[in-house]
Amino acid sequence: MLSIGDLVLDVTIVPDRRLQPDDDTPAAITVGGGGQAANFCAWAASLGEPARLVCRVGDDATGSRLVADLEAAGVEVFAVKGSEPTGVIAVLVGTDGERTMATMRGASVGLQAADLRSEWFAGVDLLHLPAYSLFREPLAHAARRAVHEVREGGGMLSIDLSSVAGLLEYGPARMVSDIDALRPDMLFATAAEAETLAVSLEGVATHVVVKFGPAGCQVGSRRIVAPAVEVVDSTGAGDAFAACFCASILHGAAPVEAAERAVAVAAEAVGHAGARPLRK
Questions:
Q1: Under CATH, which number does the domain 2-269 receive?
Q2: Is 0.85 topped by the overall pTM?
């Protein structure tokens, strides 16, 4: 499996209690790799799947460290280096485990179609495309070339709608048009993202999966209940879900079975701070 898009630094802040203005609040603060495309690959690799990331980072120590960390997790990384700094996301986790993010995407959005090499896509059975990779040029043009490369090789396409704010800025109707043109095999959306598109998602992909967070998900007409767990940080849970669902489908699982496996992996993901699987 391959994904194209962001590899960034996540700074995750989990306060002990609700933040108050002009006050000092104890918190657990962790620094690690993030970015939806990179997180998908990290979770895929943790599940034993071959995983490959195409991305752009800054020509700086942060970018080099993030690439090395992802490679150590078993992901093959093709990283173009740019003059802009590597992106950073500040993740503030609330007392209920939900999070708010402030994002500087940095070098990642500067990836160009001309940067890509056909051999990076050889043998790829599935491309996972975060909608983040379609929101900004020139990355969007590179992402579309990646879709063409993988489709030419007979691979599948999955799309994750990524962000309500991103969809509103990009234009819901424009995204609907993109989905219609790209014809994904799998489409992942939170309930809020699906509502933002303001159209029925039925039939827009072979498998349409709507995620309801702790309440589980729906695939087709079937509702899947998630296991009850203590939520520490929900960052990366959707990427874990998508990685497991895609891997299961590739291995011949039925959609409901794939969704049941995926909610179990997502439940594991919310049990610790950070967007990546814990190193074993």
A1: 3.40.1190.20
A2: yes
